Amino acid sequence: MKLITKQIDYAIRILGSMAREKDIMHTTTSLAEKLKISRPFVRGILQKLNKENIVVSSKGKSGGFKFEADPHKISVISIIEIFDGQVKLDNCLIGNKVCPDTKTCLLKKKLKEMSNYINSEFKSLTLAELLNQ
Known about the structure:
Number of domains: 1
Radius of gyration: 18 Å
Order of helices and strands: HHHEEHHH
CATH topology: Arc Repressor Mutant, subunit A
Number of helices: 6
């Protein structure tokens, strides 16, 4: 079970780089080279972040992407949810698609508590805190 996927890691790295240079228009090529991430991966991440109004895009010769949001208002959980949906740890750890014992499972309650804790921590952790701003 991966909590932070490659896409989320890259999104946080991209946003961090852009937030440090907030007034600059960033191209997918420049970000890909700077962060050593494939250009198509960068483009896909930026397109999703653009739909969420975290970055804005501009077309044309001097176009690219610009960091738009306040880093103090972007929580890690919001970035996770953009790419992977809600963090839920209460799925069967054994791998059963349908658990035959959901009402009496000894782990389910504890996993739900852990999931709530992780969600709470990630909700309070902002991009600005990760950047030490």
